[in-house]
Specification:
heterodimer; A: 121 residues; alpha/beta; Rossmann fold; 5 helices; 41% helix; 21% strand; B: 272 residues; seven-stranded mixed beta sheet; 10 strands
Chain lengths: 121, 272
């Protein structure tokens, strides 16, 4: 089964995302900020990362830039999921290596469509 | 809903647009007409229909039919269908036509996402000739929204890749606004598919996806025949992936291995 790391400082968002992603066949791990996510990735690289932007300790973009420097860190397909909807911010996330970008709020259809677009389904 | 109300709505939909109203789905009728009734200042759907019985106003009739005809749409709906258009159908037809523009029709396009998806897709295709895109719908309201090129954050996240969003849209307040360049590539027209379509000319590709399955059998046969007649001899009709042209077997032939894709039968209306 393929794995997806859900990174968000909101427990509620993680729970909602987990339920949607489990329904489309992913095994889920959770992290509440970039530091914790990095620790997960160093232990075992996931196939996908659903990544919030604004988090304490390490934000999403900083995490993504660091991830790409790690051994095997180019492999995970990263989909951002943030309230940030300014086109320049979205471009910054894509430039840092994100495959797709979801603007909150989201629903199951949006996650599924974006994961399909990122080649994950 | 009262049984006579359902009868009235079903009769209007059938005679005006060939629409089949599923009598079992009263919740669907309620929810679609409920919003219209509120907009028109009625307390309930029943009140709106009573007013219509008292005075059969054409504008009101069409508002009801259009509300019932409204269908869901999304950018690049059915990714496989768009991949087929991009990789095979459009390049093949473009080679045949040479410098002559390709004409593509998004029929019953609702709020325009399909027509604009075609516009964005063909914008990136290196065809020798331009691709002319037409969008039509029964509903003026839907066409007004289509023409505005304004979509909600929710709508631009259903099927539209993020890179195309950044490339072709600007964010204005809470809405996303499609660039004038792409908007100008589509021409819009209110068209009732059960009307005479012969004045529209010939199209190389017609998309009428998830449309005919919502029609009653008589209207379905008629619409399929009209669409076939509007196709160029080597043109292609795309229905929904689960739809067939079984009601007009003399006009259309399924293309092998391509679900929901049909060619005009060479013998159809040849004498005409």
């Amino acid at each position: 089964m393929r794995t997806c790391l859900v990174v968000d400082d909101s427990r509620v968002i993680r729970k909602v995302a987990r339920r949607i992603l489990e329904d489309i066949g992913f095994e889920i791990a959770e992290a509440s900020d970039g530091m914790e996510a990095l620790a997960w990735c160093r232990a075992a690289m996931p196939d996908a990362v659903l990544l919030d932007w604004n988090m304490p300790l390490m934000n999403g973009v900083d995490f993504l830039r660091q991830l790409r420097k790690e051994p095997g860190g180019d492999d995970p397909v990263v989909v951002f999921c943030s309230v940030e909807s300014d086109p320049n911010s979205i471009r910054e996330a894509l430039d840092a290596g994100a495959a797709e970008y979801i603007m909150k709020p989201f629903d199951g259809d949006i996650i599924e469509a974006k994961f399909a677009e990122a080649g994950l389904l | 809903m009262r049984s006579e109300d359902i009868d009235l709505v079903a009769a209007l939909c059938r005679t005006r647009a060939g629409l089949k109203v599923d009598r079992e789905k009263t919740y669907l009728i309620e929810s679609r007409l409920g919003a219209l009734a509120r907009r028109e200042g009625f307390g309930a759907v029943e009140d709106m229909l009573d007013a219509l019985r008292a005075r059969r106003e054409e504008r009101m009739i069409w508002s009801i039919v259009e509300a019932m005809a409204l269908s869901e749409t999304a950018f690049f709906r059915d990714r496989e269908a768009f991949a087929l258009l991009r990789d095979e159908i459009l390049p093949g037809l473009a080679r045949e036509r040479g410098a002559k523009p390709l004409r593509v029709w998004s029929a019953a396009c609702s709020t325009g996402q399909e027509a604009y998806s075609l516009a964005m897709m063909t914008d990136a295709l290196a065809t020798a000739a331009p691709v002319e895109i037409f969008g039509s719908d029964l509903s003026e309201r839907a066409l007004e929204k289509a023409q505005s090129g304004l979509y909600t954050q929710f709508e631009v996240q259903r099927g539209l890749p993020i890179r195309l969003l950044l490339q072709h849209f600007n964010k204005t307040d809470e809405m996303w606004s499609l660039s004038p360049r792409i908007r100008q590539r589509v021409r819009w027209k209110r068209i009732n598919l059960i009307a005479d379509l012969t004045a529209l000319g010939r199209f190389d590709v017609i998309l009428a996806r998830n449309v005919v399955s919502g029609l009653d059998p008589v209207a379905r046969a008629r619409v399929l025949q009209s669409l076939a007649a509007a196709l160029a001899p080597d043109g292609v009709l795309m229905l929904g992936v689960d739809e067939t042209a079984d009601d007009a077997p003399e006009a259309l032939r399924p293309m092998p291995g391509r679900r929901g894709v049909f060619a005009r039968d060479p013998a159809f209306q040849k004498a005409a």
